[in-house]
Amino acid sequence: MTDPLVRLRHDLHRHPDLSGNEGPTARRITAFLHECGPARIVDGLGGHGVAAIFEGPEDGLTVMFRAELDALPIQERGDIFHRSGREGVAHLCGHDGHMAILAGLARNLADDPPRAGRVILLFQPAEETGEGARAVLANPRFTPLRPDWAFALHNMPGLALGHLAVAAGPAACASVGLRLRLNGREAHAAQPETGQSPAPVLQQLLAWVQQFQPGQDGRLATLCHLNMGQPAFGIAPAQAELWITLRTITDPALDAFERELRGLTETLARQYRLDVRISRHDHFNASINDPAAAAIVARAAAKLDMPPGDFTLPMRASEDFGAFSATARTALFFLGAGLDVPSLHNPDYDFPDALIAPAVRLFRTILDECQQV
Q1: How does residue 195 score in pLDDT terms, banded at 50, 70 and 90?
Q2: Which InterPro entries is this protein grouped with (predicted)?
């Protein structure tokens, strides 16, 4: 195999790193970027983030393209020669492909620098936990790099290979994980009334979760983990723990949804005389596409004869790219990975190498469109 971008993608796939521990991946990317001769490289952004800066000869706006560094804590099951070499860790969301695409844009910019302004290629850490984008934005070293325009793609199984989906407005849902811990008092199983069991609270919380199913009002609650009591038939339980993910189309709607669940949990805990602790995890902002940024992507795709994709927006899953919309005009779009392929986060998913070259051309055309605005 001679294509250096495909080789890079396969190397990244063999050596995945989890969120917050992407140092080896960042070093691989940095070594590749040095060969492309950017004006400078800034590392250590929000953890292990890396940014390559390419500058044009004239003043102009700053355009950023983003890819993700991290992999998933899932055992890969696919039968491919470049499968993950790390037990229980794998690139099953296609971030290896996203990095290869951005590396290809770096090579393109080395040969054909921007006419004006700056181009930032950001390889971002910790996307899978929702922490990375906000950590990059909070890093003082990123402040002078903050872009006027920011773009990111995500490969999408179930969408025809190479077809593109983009629109103004919501592109990916907001979400948050809530860990609910309930604590009462054990009792003999023959006298459960003498204790304080979390079971009635669990029953009502589970009924509440079941109200929110896909395709109803834009709100989705998913039970992800449940544990109660000890594995013994003689003891009525005292402790329980639930992990629930909440998902909405906008950030304000997510705030309201979270308040509703917290309020219900605290009310039930008081009713059944239980202590309750609630902690917040994996918070993702909604990704809301700026109309002008989405239009730039659509024009670029049309120039390259990329067919529009049949894909319902917003994507139900979350993507922390939305955090960049606080300071830039952003667009997140989706590039088809094929119709009859495993879904994202499936143990046998593998990013299609055929997407790399057209996605590089698309990113470059988006840049050219930005410089004409």
Answers
A1: very high
A2: Amidohydrolase, Bact_exopeptidase_dim_dom, Peptidase_M20
The total number of structural domains that make up the chain: 2
Listed in sequence order, the DSSP H helices in 112-198 are: 132-138
Over residues 253-293, the pLDDT tens digits come to: 999 999 999 999 999 999 999 999 999 999 999 999 999 99
The total of other beta-carbon atoms located within 10 Å of residue 259's CB is 10
Q: Please state, in angstroms and rounded to a whole number, the distance separating the CA atoms of residues 184 and 196.
A: 5
- State whether residue 352 is helix, strand or coil: coil
Q: How far apart are CA 363 and CA 29, in angstroms?
A: 18
Q: Which structural domain, as residue segments, surrounds residue 31? A: 4-170+286-370
Q: What angle do CA 120, 126, 130 make, to 5 degrees?
A: 105
Which residue from 174, 157, 212 is spatially nearest to 318, judged by alpha carbons? Answer: 174
What are the pLDDT digits (tens) for 47-98?
A: 999 999 999 999 999 999 999 999 999 999 989 999 999 999 999 999 999 9
Residue 122, domain CATH: 3.40.630.10
Residue 371's pLDDT band (boundaries 50, 70, 90)?
confident
Smallest CA-to-CA distance from 62 within 120, 105, 110 is with 120
